[in-house]
Design a protein that fits this description.
With 161 residues, the chain is α+β, with helices and mostly antiparallel strands. The chain folds into two domains: 1-33; 49-158, Beta Barrel (Lipocalin). The protein has one helix and ten strands; from the N terminus they run H-E-E-E-E-E-E-E-E-E-E. The chain has one helix spanning 2-26, and strands spanning 49-57, 60-69, 72-80, 86-96, 99-108, 111-122, 125-128, 133-136, 139-142, 154-158. It has an eight-stranded antiparallel beta barrel. Strands 8-9 form a two-stranded antiparallel sheet. The radius of gyration is 29 Å and the shape is globular. It starts with a helix and ends with a strand. The model is unreliable at 1-29 and 36-41 (pLDDT under 50).
């Protein structure tokens, strides 16, 4: 009896499979096919671009040239503080929404250093974040990025030279 039931189940399965194949070959227009969107980005990648920004206040200045490729950002960042050490270097990081998070590798008075930099992009300007920092592994890092303030240095977009 078990063998008869097993044979009946196999025959029914084969009939179902063969009828599916013939139905799909008929081109039935009522069949719904879901589009596979599992690999579609939710946000389109940003276009490659080069943008320049500058801050000037009396004799102090900051110049930033950013090269953006998708979320990856590289560039040159120079601080020229009046009667203080100049900082000249490069940054590398990524855009996370409207926030640039990067490492700044710079030279100042013959010494090479690394520190975190964070810029908030708003209305065509970049607002530099500042807050409490600590040294970790030879690099100055922000203790808590969520507590950064963005109201001291505002870089405006300028034409690149």
């Amino acid at each position: 009896m078990k063998r008869v039931f097993l044979l009946f189940a196999m025959a029914a399965g084969l009939t179902a499979c063969s009828s599916e194949n013939t139905d799909s070959n008929k081109g039935d227009s009522t069949e719904l096919i879901a589009e596979d969107t599992t690999f579609t980005a939710t946000n389109p990648p940003a276009a490659n671009s080069t943008d320049c920004y500058q801050y000037v206040n009396n004799k102090d200045s900051v110049v930033l040239k950013l090269k953006v490729a998708g979320e990856e950002v590289t560039g040159d960042l120079n601080y020229n503080w009046f009667e203080k050490d100049k900082n000249k270097g490069t940054l590398a990081g990524e855009m996370k929404g409207d926030t640039l998070i990067a490492e700044y590798l710079f030279d100042s008075e013959g010494t090479r250093s690394v520190r975190d930099v964070v810029f908030l992009k708003k209305g065509g300007q970049l607002y530099e974040g500042y807050g409490k920092s600590t040294e970790k592994g030879g690099k100055m890092t922000f203790e808590d990025r969520s507590k950064l303030k963005f109201d001291a240095i505002v870089l405006s977009k300028v034409p690149c030279n």
